[in-house]
Amino acid sequence: MKLLKKIAWALLIVFVGMQFFRPETNTAEAGHLDAFLTETNPSQEVRLILKQACNDCHSNQTIYPWYSNIAPISYWMDEHIEHGKEELNFSEWATYKKKKKDHKLEELVEEVEEGKMPLNEYTWTHVDAKLTDGQIKALTDWAKRTRALYQIGERPQ
Ligand code: HEC
């Protein structure tokens, strides 16, 4: 019993100590998505889908829920955000070359059609991010149309 009590205290101290180490928050200036939105011209419906289901991990602006302040949840979320942005960051769209834009949109269609994005664990707490069949179609149709525009040179290179 004594040992268990010691372990419980040690865990509590570690947990409290963790709270002092916070990952940097992912917050951008207003207008960080302007270039992306102008170039890919999503409908209002698609904008809302991106906002509710993707931008937290694929843009420079995350909307943080209250529990994101609690370590180790904060570390776990930060890992997703950093990794997600590394693969695809709408806020940095203007820095991508045409070929990369086309490829990222191709990946987007694949990931969304296969139900891999948004990440499952994200939809546990973000109910709005669970995409309906109609939303999946709207999002992938937009991505396919935009790819076609890049391919025929109707968009910046
Ligand atoms: C909770 C964070 C999170 C959310 C929300 C999220 N993603 Fe991701 N996404 C990631 C992570 C992490 C990766 C990289 C690892 C992987 O592929 O599983 C990734 C990878 C991707 C890739 C692959 C890029 C490449 O070049 O291979 C695409 C495309 C993508 N996400 C699109 C989306 C779309 C579209 C949405 C919204 C419908 C979305 N993601 C929502 C975290 C997220």
UniProtKB/TrEMBL annotation:
Residues 1-21 form the signal peptide. Keywords: Signal. SMART domains: Haem_bd. Residues 12-147 form the Haem-binding domain. Pfam families: Haem_bd. The keyword Iron-sulfur does not apply. This is Cytochrome C. The lineage of its organism: Bacteria, Pseudomonadati, Bacteroidota, Flavobacteriia, Flavobacteriales.
